[in-house]
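Researcher: Batch entry, complex prediction.
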Amino acid sequence: MENKKPMSLTEAFANPKAGRDSSDCKLMRVRPELDEDDQRTLDKAVDAIRADLGNGKSKTYSVAWLHRVLKNLGHSISTSSIQRHINGSCGCGPTN
Ligand SMILES: [Zn+2]
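Model: Structure tokens for the complex:
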């Protein structure tokens, strides 16, 4: 284990993107394991799940759905990892 000294709050405040790394995102680690078509479809699926949020009706595309599909393909990822990516709170989240 790397024993890196955590940033001070002052440093973190000055560099809010520091320490964010797409390798922290489990979904982006699974992505290269998919074939090319499925990588593109994964991006579309993420957009579809995001678009489906806040809709009172039952979701067509949901985190649970994507989790089930990926699991069936033999990828180990948790629903919370997918949810973090959907929320943009993962390492590769929005850069603004
Ligand atoms: Zn992500």
